[in-house]
Amino acid sequence: MDPPPSLRFGADVAAEPDGVSPKELEDRIAAHARWLSCEGREGERFQMVGANLNYGMFFEADLAGADLEGADLFRANLRDCNLTGAVLRGARLEGASMVNANLSRADLRGASLDGAVLPGALFEDAYLEGASLRGTNLLSANFSRAHLKGGDMADANLAGGALVAADLSGANLHAAKLMMVDLSGARLAQVDFGEAVLFGVVLRGADLSGADLRFANGLTREQLDAAHGDRATRLPESLDGYLMSEAPSD
Questions:
Q1: CA angle 95, 96, 97 (to 5 degrees)
Q2: Considering 31, 198, 222, 230, which has the largest number of Cβ atoms within 10 A of its Cβ?
């Protein structure tokens, strides 16, 4: 369902008098900043549910707690934005520029971030269940304690990042670049690591129960010695016969 004309960013204002112009978007961002600084006594919360904001300019905007559920932010500029606790459930963020964006505690469930550019982004304690991050640039991104259950991160570049204590149960990490990623204490049950690159990955205390690592690259015994698994964990042929220690029962 298309958003109403009043929520069409970049519309021809002459042709559509109710269209949201860049100036109006700037005013809404400023009103939200006042709303934050005055704890809701002044200004107005940024709420643009289902809005068409593709190619929108949000550079360095403070949108903490904003409501952008279902918004279309295709190729929007969200570099250095503060989106802490923002609602982006089901949003379209494909190809968006989000370098160093802060998405801690944000709700991104079911959102699409395919091909987005997110080096250095913060996703601590964020909710990304069922989100799609296929081919996304996530260099050095921090997903510590994030909820990524059932997420699709196929072919994503997470090199140098952190997913400490994150829940990736059932996630798709096929062909993901995970060089030097810290997965300490992560839940990796039923994860597909097919053709993923695992050189230097830290798996201390990670749960690999039922994970498919048969075609992963760079996996070593030393890495597995620090992790947990079960009889359903599938390992490369080079590690045939290796028995993983099972995770301690809660």
A1: 120
A2: 198
Alpha helix locations (H) across the chain? 22-37, 221-225
What does the alpha-carbon distance between residue 173 and residue 192 come to, in Å, rounded to a whole number? 6
Nearest to 226 by CA among 197, 193, 190, 200: 200
CB 197 within 8 A of CB 176: yes
Read off the tokens for 197. 């690159």
Question: Which residues on adjacent β-strands are paired with residue 117?
Answer: 97, 137
Q: 143 and 165 in contact (C-beta within 8 Å)? A: no
Task: Name the token pair of 175.
Answer: 């062909």
pLDDT digits (tens, 9 = 90+) for 35-67: 999 999 999 999 999 999 999 999 999 999 999
Give 75's Cβ-side CA count (13 Å radius). 2
What is the pTM assigned to this prediction?
A: 0.90
Task: Give the pLDDT mean for 13-37.
Answer: 77
Name the phi and psi angles at 225, rounded to 5.
-60, -30
Could you identify the residue written with the tokens 């204002």? 13
7-17 pLDDT, tens digit per residue, is 444 434 343 33
- Asked if 214 and 239 count as a contact pair (C-beta separation under 8 A), the reply is no
Contacts within 8 Å (CB) and 24+ apart, 119-128: none
C-alpha dihedral, 225 to 231 to 233 to 234, nearest 10°: 100
What are 58's two structure tokens? Answer: 């949000």
Instruction: Give dist(CA 6, CA 196) in Å, integer.
Output: 44
Count, residues in the chain: 250
**R_g over Cα of the chain:** 20
